[in-house]
Amino acid sequence: MKNSKEILSSVLKTTQMGQLGIRSVLDTSMRPGLRKALESQLREYDSIESEAHLIATQRGWELPEIDPAVRFMTDMMTRMKLTGRNSDSKIAGMMIQGNTRGMIKGLKNIHQFGRQDEQIHILSQKLLDCETANIRQMQGFL
To answer: Which fold has domain 4-139?
Structure first.
């Protein structure tokens, strides 16, 4: 069973990966509706990340950030996947895949952690709800 700090660290890394994925595609040409949706999702991830940092600070915890090598490789892979045509559909598909990975990780965490720490449980559930909404939102752009 994971402890509160491990769950919070997982929430933080998931939000950072979500932001990284979105930022990696924002310089790509896309329909305005897709761009608006991604920018909204980016703000939501940023908000959840800020909450995670606040909880960690309040508890005197230092949480690890995503490794710079992971950031670089993620950005490079995203750019490679976007070569060719129909970038809106590719972007939406990549976002759905990333959100699905985040959902799976979040669900596992919630099942392993339960409600041991209500504040972290609420934030974990907020991230899970965000991932679910993001998937629904991106389906229209496939």
So the answer is: Ferritin (1.20.1260)
Token output for 142: 């496939």
| Contact assessment for residue 122 and residue 36, using Cβ atoms and an 8 Å cutoff | no
Angle formed at CA 10 by CA 133 and CA 38, multiple of 5 degrees = 35
Give the whole-angstrom CA distance, residue 33 versus residue 78. Answer: 20
Q: pTM of the predicted model, to two decimals?
A: 0.88
Residues 48 and 137: their CA atoms lie apart, in Å, by: 18
Phi and psi for 124 in degrees, rounded to 5?
A: -60, -40
Q: What letter does residue 105 receive in the DSSP assignment?
A: H
What's the confidence (pLDDT) of residue 86?
Answer: 64
Residue spans of the domains in the chain: they are 4-139
C-alpha torsion angle, residues 76, 135, 131, 24 (rounded to 10)? 20
Helix axes 32-59, 87-113, angle to 10 degrees: 30
The encoded tokens of residue 19 equal 């932001």
The mean pLDDT values, 10 residues at a time, for the chain of 142 residues are: 86 94 88 96 97 95 89 81 78 93 88 82 94 95 91
